[in-house]
Amino acid sequence: MRTLHLPLPTARLRLRDFTGEDFAAVQAYSADPRVTRYLFFGPRDAEATADYLEGLLASQRETPRTRFELAIEEPGSGRVIGACDLSMIEHGVFDLGYMLGSGDWGRGYATEVALALLEAGFQQLNAARIISTVDVNNRASIRVLEKIGMRWEAIFRKHRRAKNRWWDCHLYVLPREVWLAQAAPGGQRD
Ligand SMILES: CC(C)(COP(=O)(O)OP(=O)(O)OC[C@H]1O[C@@H](n2cnc3c(N)ncnc32)[C@H](O)[C@@H]1OP(=O)(O)O)[C@@H](O)C(=O)NCCC(=O)NCCS
Predict the structure, then answer these.
(1) Is residue 90 domain-resident?
(2) What DSSP character marks residue 69?
(3) Which domain range does residue 52 map to?
(4) What's the pLDDT band for 190 if we cut at 50, 70, 90?
């Protein structure tokens, strides 16, 4: 089973494993209702954040490791500005996700992070498909998925019931063969 080589650098950021010391940073963005508006969980209180972080740290020790939920860190300041993840949902199929504290929205960070995870997912984890589901009203995230070249595949009506409502979600997919074909002219990805 392949694994991700961490930390994973992007042009401006660094994706690394969380540690217990990141509690305050995680709590800050996941307690913010603007951040969790289109997420199935939250806003989280301190106890829920502690449970989440504990489960996440345990997942780092699993072998084979199938869940890569990573801290997004600004290398200069060492500030954790959000989280992203690539989790295997079935053999060869990985689910992509990301969230940032609202003070860091609108700088292209999510696009940069998601592109780095796609690249690493296909190259390092040998993914056959990377997918993402997004609430139909989450315009910023839909835009990110489109900018990184993922393709709309389906709409799931009443995909899930969470936070007292039904969620209609889009399914976006990037198959490995499409990712290979999107390589820059003259560039080779495999
Ligand atoms: C979704 C999220 C990660 C985007 O982060 P970001 O760093 O601001 O994203 P980027 O700057 O890379 O790109 C955002 C794009 O969406 C656009 N956008 C932002 N808000 C928008 C809105 N309300 N309607 C339409 N487009 C919007 C931006 O203009 C930008 O597109 P552009 O480059 O063509 O101008 C961030 O808003 C977030 O953390 N949201 C809360 C958590 C979440 O919903 N995660 C996704 C779950 S599927």
Answers:
(1) yes
(2) E
(3) 8-181
(4) low
